[in-house]
Design a protein that fits this description.
binds uridine-diphosphate-N-acetylglucosamine, two-stranded parallel ribbon, alpha/beta, single chain, 12 helices, 391 residues, 15 strands, Epimerase_deHydtase
Length: 391
Amino acid sequence: MTSPAIRDRTVLVTGGGGFIGSHLVEALAPYNDVRVLDNFSTGSRDNLSFASPSATGSQWAEDTLASTDGGTDDTESDADGTDGEGDDSNGSLTIVDGDISDPMALQRAARGVDLIFHQAALVSVTESVDAPRRSNETNLDASLLVLDQARQEDARVVLASSAAVYGHPDELPVSETATTEPTSPYGIQKLALDQYARRYHDLYDLPTVALRYFNAYGPRQQGPYSGVISTFLEQARADEPITIEGDGEQTRDFVHVSDVVRANLHAATTDAVGEAYNVGTGERTSIRELAELIRDAVGSSSPIVHREPRSGDIRHSRADASKASRELGFETRVGLESGIRSLVTAAGGEQASSSSSTQQRENQGRERRQHQQQHQQERPLAARPDRQSQD
Ligand code: UD1
């Protein structure tokens, strides 16, 4: 099955400097006029470094917004001083450095677009528990601005929802019709957004698709709030203890970012709009199995250790992926073992070629460890599993 071709469109990717957003931009930018709106609070410009004219033949420009006062600076500059003419690609990439909650930045980034991939979010469940209103401002209030802007532009919106909408699923695999009982502010915000998207379709005839991501992983997932795979990989590479939270028997459905991108492309072209779809493999892996898989793939001598379970952790999660298969024609392609192997191989190449990115990873690792320690200190007593409230 091939991925749908998206060509010659004007596309906005909110959060395009982030983990999933940057992979979407990478897929789209050679053939479309792509705008990225990102405040780079958790994303990074390095994530978009593939888009240099020499790499893609694309034109790309930096659109600097004075986002602190909402004013604009009309200066546009080529990222490396060339205009990138060359091969058969005909896309462009414009980066708008601004916040989705800033209406001027949003208007400017969305002007004339016919398709919006809304990826910008505060993705940390833990942070949403610590500061629910703050995460609500981004994940819901600002997301409504994006939906309203899409109405202005008459643009389709494909947006990032989450398996967090289900909370503790009643049965596995979990289908889109399952009870939605989110256990964290993050899950509540994603559920509200997911429902708004469908109501915007019904009420205003806006073509929307909500994609409920399960546990996405892949290259560029890094930083203190990244997922368990990037944490374990980093620990294994450093021959440090691999830290399992709880007994390790909890399970997840890990989906590779390249499959997440393909799901987005299907959602961008489907006629089956006004719907929400699970994006997962339908397979589940325990955290213990994952730790061993990663240790073996890296060839590490890390011990596997256990610490307190995470407050609010979900016990099991696995997607029923049949609706996306039936209605979007989407199937995942990357199995967990090969996905992890490719991460290990890619990291080896990167280490050989870039000491600065190694330094960056080390800094991010340090930042992550500090964050984990801080949370361990803040929450010395783990909640009992039956009282857990976070995904
Ligand atoms: C993830 C997403 C979340 C999404 C949800 C949907 C990330 C960071 N979070 O949450 O945005 O809503 O899937 O299903 O991708 N663990 C350890 N040791 C570690 C880190 C984690 O044992 O060092 C365990 C956790 O306790 C948890 C499991 O691994 O049981 C997965 O954790 P994590 O990768 O943070 O993802 P989720 O909490 O499932």
